[in-house]
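Hi R.,

Here's the chain you asked about this morning:
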Amino acid sequence: MDRTILTKVILCAVTVGICLVPAIFINTILGYLAVLTAVVLIGGSYGYLRLLRRSLDYAESSDMSNCVRGTNIDFSVRLRNRSILFYPLVEPYFYIADLFGSDDSLISDIITLAPREKRDFEFDARFDHIGMYSAGLRKICLQDLLGLFTCTIESSREYTVSVIPQIYDIERLPVSRTAASESQKMTVANPMDSSDYAGVREYVIGDPIKNIHWKLSARTTGYMTKVFESYSNTGICVILDFHAPAYDPEGLMSVFDCIVETALSIGRYAVKEGLESEIRYYNKYGEKVQVSSYNQEEFISMVENMPRIHTEADRDRAVDLLREEGNSLYSQGNLIICTADITPELLESLIAVRTRRKNPMLFAVVPESLSEEKRQKLQSDMGILEEYGIFHHMLSDAKSLEGGSLS
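And the predicted structure, written out as tokens:
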């Protein structure tokens, strides 16, 4: 039993018990007057509450449908007292469920209703994170005249809200606008045989084992790998990684916002520069998705199908998408990954993409609450990318990209 209800039951019992004292000692009708009055008041107050429950109408109204992250949506509940009774306490509760299914916020207020009165109760709902939310009126609580009993009216209506990303204008990105084939850069030509590769070079971490030239490697001091023609385009491919370290829920949602908004801001930059652009990620069903348009309708569809950010390391690995694009003959020449999961495997994969004469870039997303010590550790880990001329940028909020010239 709820502790509050139990307390009220005990209080009623104690009150009736105290009222019985005069009856025991006086043993007349006057002696029982106090206890009879207490019982009538308690019973009458409970009956009054049941009448209140039947006499209250409510109607919800809202423009909840879609909104941009960080904006407010108005929600209102109109309460109407159909009876001549007075409502001593009415407490409506409005909720917003977060991306993880729990109530992110629960707003309430206490009002009274005079006989036949109508009252509008206004909520101002703010959505600070991208995603699909459920929101609406959770319940209305009523209280009797004596404050002993409560009654709850549950609301069955639920609103679904698609909170779409904010997009920021980037001034400049260090993108490559050339698509020279990898074989043209090699110093070792392909022997004139029936092979379909264009040359060879030294093996580096991340190269497919199947491409090692075993015969040539046997005559050298190291492994040699076959080089195939690259027909990459001059556009941009942005890969989204929805795996993150085990940050707190607020940190995870902020990281998710930054990853998505960074990717879409890069996509808009590509369109502005006249470059082909595509965004790749695994949706909530584990399917590979490619987005190449950047209108509001597309954003809504993206939000509806995006997964929640998660901490499961072996699920829908974005690094596999990076490798897939890096090994593809016809992929975009600029491969960008937006991720909060900076691992040695990711860094090796970026270096491997670089050896294929493509232009990889890393946008490392961290929550604002991350300590300076951990930030410096990440910066140190990413320092190896500088040796290969790979651009990397650490950020906590995509808004920092606004008007920025990154190089």
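The first strand starts at residue 56 and ends at 62.

Let me know if you need anything else.
M.
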